[in-house]
Prior knowledge:
CATH topology of the largest domain: Rossmann fold
Strand content: 15-25%
CATH class of the largest domain: Alpha Beta
Order of helices and strands: HHHEHHEHEEHEEHE
Radius of gyration: 22 Å
Largest sheet: 5 strands, parallel
Shape: globular
CATH architecture of the largest domain: 3-Layer(aba) Sandwich
Number of domains: 2
Helix content: 25-40%
Amino acid sequence: MTIKEKVGRGCSAIVQMIGVSLFLPRCRNCGQDLVEPEEKIICSDCRQKICLTTENQCRTCGKFLPDGIEICGSCLLQPPPFLRHISYAAYEDTLREIIILYKYGEVEALKTFLASLYMEILQKKLPAGFHAVVPVPVDRERRHGFMPVWTMGRILARELKIEFLPNLLQKKKSTPPQVGLSQAQRKTNLNGAFTLAEKQKLAGKKILLIDDVTTTGTTIKKCAAVLIKSGARVTALTLAQSRL
């Protein structure tokens, strides 16, 4: 083979590699090519960076605490209405990026992966025996199109083989988003915002209340309080929790 032929064959191989790379789907988070059959939307490297937190958390509200402290001062002084709240991890790094991609980028295909994070919490940290999944409600004017928490809740309920009650809780008044408010404003912004939208016999029922992200915990506390007034026993799950 002549030098010219070798160079030509080498150039053809490079062009072919570039062509294949151009047509490969890429991770929506980091941009890496998706080459493995099981890789969908995000690559395996990004998935492996998302792990159930091993940090010390309050055994009631889930707030991140220094090692050696079991219950935070807030829960000791004023216990929340839910039995327990657990977040998968802190709202940072790759988990934060994936939640934003799903929630605001409306990449609905991530729903199964993110719903599996709730399942991991349940399998590793909570006993079985829940009766229903209830998502935190949204303002009435937003109740159309893509609703990320409802979508994940439906999958979770199906996996657990329990009821999914997306309309049980209703947000009866529109409020400014919690994002951007001060801590004091967050605590009062949702006063009187939630109510039961359906008549249900909740006495003794073990409810999984789910949301995507929590900061002060005000939203899940307000929702849990409404459910508990009707006799339910509430455990709250969120994908991520901001550090205060």
